[in-house]
Amino acid sequence: MNKFYISTITTIIMNVAYFAYANPEATETNAPVAEVNIMKLRDPFWPSGWRPPNLEKKKSAAEITSPIKWDEAASLLRIAGLTKKAGGDYIAIIKGYGIIEKGDILAVNYQGLIYKWKITEITAEGIKRKRLSVSN
User: Fold this and answer.
1) 16-52: pLDDT as tens digits
2) 24, 41, 56: which is the final residue of a domain?
3) Burial of 124 (0-12, 13-18, 19+ CB in 10 A)
4) 72 and 89 both lie in a single domain
5) pLDDT, tens digit, 9 for 90 and up, residues 48-105
6) In a shared domain, residues 14 and 78
7) From 19's CA, which of 57, 69, 85, 107 has a CA 20 to 30 Å away?
8) How far does CA 73 lie from the centroid of its chain?
């Protein structure tokens, strides 16, 4: 036998064994392959527990189980500098964002949640922000 023939037979046997292991209800009921839920199948070369992003279920805001930590997320907004514009208004430079002004909306990803603030005021002492939302 040639190597191609042996590798093809081995691949078929491994796929049949994996399918039987991954879908025991399909083999017990002798369901046709067309009726098996394709979402249950996975590529054997994916890392353990990994799924493609398009197969992951999105959580709604009501399903968020992580504790909401506004202060810890806000600590990621690092002010690099404050300056006064020609008109007298202040602007701030935030690391990772650049220049921000009053009314801008900032978002931070902290522990899988996206925290959003609206900048309400920028003074020589710093920035004041209003909490807007937390989402996935």
Assistant:
1) 666 655 555 554 555 555 554 555 566 777 777 777 7
2) 56
3) exposed
4) yes
5) 777 776 655 555 555 555 678 888 988 888 889 999 988 889 999 998 888 999 999 9
6) no
7) 57
8) 16
pLDDT score of 9? 74
Q: What is the pLDDT of residues 97-106, one digit of tens each?
A: 889 999 999 9
Instruction: Return d(Cα 134, Cα 54) in angstroms, integer.
Output: 22
Q: How many domains does the chain have?
A: 2
CA distances from 41 to 17, 26, 32, 51, 122 (A): 13, 12, 15, 10, 53
In angstroms, the CA 104 to CA 118 distance is 6
Of 45, 41, 46, residue with least CA distance to 16: 41
Give a three-class secondary structure readout of the chain.
Answer: CCHHHHHHHHHHHHHHHHHHHHCHHHHHCCCCHHHCCHHHCCCCCCCCCCCCHHHCCCCCHHHCCCCCCHHHHHCCCCEEEEEECCCCCEEEEECCCEEECCCCEEEEEECCEEEEEEEEEEECCEEEEEEEEEEC
